[in-house]
Amino acid sequence: MAELWTANRGDLTHRLDYNLHPDSVVLDLGGYEGQWASDIFARYCCNLYVFEPITEYADKIQSRFRRNTKVQVFPFGLGPSDCQLPMSKKLDHSSVVLQDGEIVMGPFREATHFITGELALSHVDLMKINIEGAEYDLLEHLIARNWITNISNLQIQFHDFVPDAEARMRNLQERLASTHSMTYQYPFVWENWARKE
Questions:
Q1: How far apart are CA 163 and CA 161, in angstroms?
Q2: Residue 63 is part of which domain span?
Q3: Which of 133, 140, 54 is nearest to 97 (CA)?
Q4: 69: which residues sit within 8 A by CB, 6+ positions away?
Q5: What is the number of structural domains in the chain?
Q6: Which CATH number characterizes residue 122's domain?
Q7: Cys-Cys crosslink for 58: which of 17, 49, 75, 189, Cβ 3.0 to 4.6 Å?
Q8: Which long-range contacts (CB under 8 A, 24 or more apart) does 44-48 make?
Q9: Radius of gyration of the chain from Cα atoms?
Q10: Which secondary structure element, helix H or strand E, spans residue 101, and what is its range?
């Protein structure tokens, strides 16, 4: 499936083609180096909130966007609760699920509280989720809190190294289908869900 994604130039088409404008709100969960955020901003000049719990990577993103007032970078991740979790530090594969290699502590904030409280957002036009296995808990949290209905588009990368990954993915897809419609899917590569109007 990854080969088909590459053949279809998914990183340059699917991941960037949205009905966004300068007033749109985009959340990038799993910022890493900030490349996707940069590509989205270059195309739409929208308001971007980038989350990256690995301090070294977050600092680099901060430096990259230091002169851009429309991009805010946060040195923590979003999840079901406020906590500190051990993470493997492995470039764009850094994960709270895989515990190998260098281990660092990653800070996390409870997603719905932070988005509605500290960011004072009631709606998100696009939420990109690439958080190396933590997407399952986050999506379950957003659905349980009924905040999923405030997100127009969800761009998700599910990961198959999580226990019961396929069953959990199918369960989440079934639940998402009640509020959103799948617009593309490359299993365990990328998929997108657009809110039903």
A1: 6
A2: 2-195
A3: 133
A4: none
A5: 1
A6: 3.40.50.150
A7: 75
A8: 44/18, 44/20, 45/70, 46/20, 46/21, 46/22, 46/70, 46/125, 47/23, 48/72
A9: 16
A10: none
